[in-house]
Automatic annotation (TrEMBL):
<feature type="domain" description="THAP4-like heme-binding">
    <location>
        <begin position="11"/>
        <end position="199"/>
    </location>
</feature>
<keyword id="KW-0413">Isomerase</keyword>
<dbReference type="Pfam" id="PF08768">
    <property type="entry name" value="THAP4_heme-bd"/>
</dbReference>
<keyword id="KW-0349">Heme</keyword>
<feature type="short sequence motif" description="GXWXGXG">
    <location>
        <begin position="20"/>
        <end position="26"/>
    </location>
</feature>
<comment type="function">
    <text>Heme-binding protein able to scavenge peroxynitrite and to protect free L-tyrosine against peroxynitrite-mediated nitration, by acting as a peroxynitrite isomerase that converts peroxynitrite to nitrate. Therefore, this protein likely plays a role in peroxynitrite sensing and in the detoxification of reactive nitrogen and oxygen species (RNS and ROS, respectively). Is able to bind nitric oxide (NO) in vitro, but may act as a sensor of peroxynitrite levels in vivo.</text>
</comment>
<dbReference type="InterPro" id="IPR014878">
    <property type="entry name" value="THAP4-like_heme-bd"/>
</dbReference>
<keyword id="KW-0479">Metal-binding</keyword>
<comment type="pathway">
    <text>Nitrogen metabolism.</text>
</comment>
<feature type="binding site">
    <location>
        <position position="32"/>
    </location>
    <ligand>
        <name>heme b</name>
    </ligand>
</feature>
<feature type="binding site">
    <location>
        <position position="160"/>
    </location>
    <ligand>
        <name>heme b</name>
    </ligand>
</feature>
<dbReference type="InterPro" id="IPR012674">
    <property type="entry name" value="Calycin"/>
</dbReference>
<protein>
    <recommendedName>
        <fullName>Peroxynitrite isomerase</fullName>
        <ecNumber>5.99.-.-</ecNumber>
    </recommendedName>
</protein>
<keyword id="KW-0408">Iron</keyword>
<dbReference type="InterPro" id="IPR045165">
    <property type="entry name" value="Nitrobindin"/>
</dbReference>
<dbReference type="InterPro" id="IPR022939">
    <property type="entry name" value="Nb(III)_bact/plant"/>
</dbReference>
<comment type="similarity">
    <text>Belongs to the nitrobindin family.</text>
</comment>
């Protein structure tokens, strides 16, 4: 049974089922020009909120050996997830600029007005990876399912080639299931990793 915090901003209601810390394991399976990469990994994902109209996101993964012991860290990510809506004068930003007009608490009706033609809510997700990759995903949440695709990918000079990605998240029997497809290291967009996570907190 999902328990929602009573102080949850209305903008986060469509994403509320993500809140908490999720842990589990998954499988890497990706073909590159240099060969076929496979393996199992442990994964921890956290979705939290601090009163803003976005979710804080962080995730870490560790490669596992045949006995299930962690061998070494893989990529870590941090970022923000939010239901897409135009920023108004009542919103702060960019940077540290305060709002230029008084705000009011947004309501469920305000959020309902953001539903798209498919009955879901458009999403904007900004992620930064520990390996020098930054991604902007666009997509939607419809009930307990999220589909995302990169709109932009930026890499540092030292990062490996990575050009596009899609992600799918779903709540199934109380577990968070996800799949991540990538286009990297000269390869086309293809299946890369998937995992099944249980609520830990």
């Amino acid at each position: 049974m999902l328990e929602l915090p009573t102080d949850l901003p209305a903008d986060l209601v469509p994403l509320s089922w993500l809140l908490g810390v999720w842990e589990g394991s998954g499988v890497i399976d990706y073909e590159t020009a240099d060969g076929h990469l496979t393996g199992e990994f442990a994964h921890q994902v956290s979705f939290s909120h601090d009163g803003g109209d976005y979710l804080n996101y962080s995730a870490s993964a560790w490669l596992l050996d045949d006995s299930g012991a962690r061998i070494r860290p893989l990529v870590a990510e941090t970022g923000y997830w939010r239901v897409a809506r135009p920023a108004g004068a009542e919103d702060a930003g960019p940077g540290l600029l305060p709002a230029s007009a008084p705000g009011r608490e947004r309501t469920v009706d305000d959020v309902e007005a953001l539903r798209n033609a498919e009955g879901g809510f458009d999403l904007e997700v900004a992620l930064v990876h520990s390996d020098g990759v930054s991604e902007l995903y666009l997509g939607q949440v419809r009930g307990p399912r999220i589909d995302l695709a990169t709109d932009a990918v930026v890499r540092t000079a030292g990062a490996k080639e990575y050009t596009a990605a899609t992600r799918m998240y779903g709540l199934v029997d109380g577990h968070l299931l996800w799949a991540w497809d990538i286009a990297a290291l000269g390869g086309e967009l293809a299946s890369h990793a998937s995992a099944r996570l249980a609520k830990a907190e």
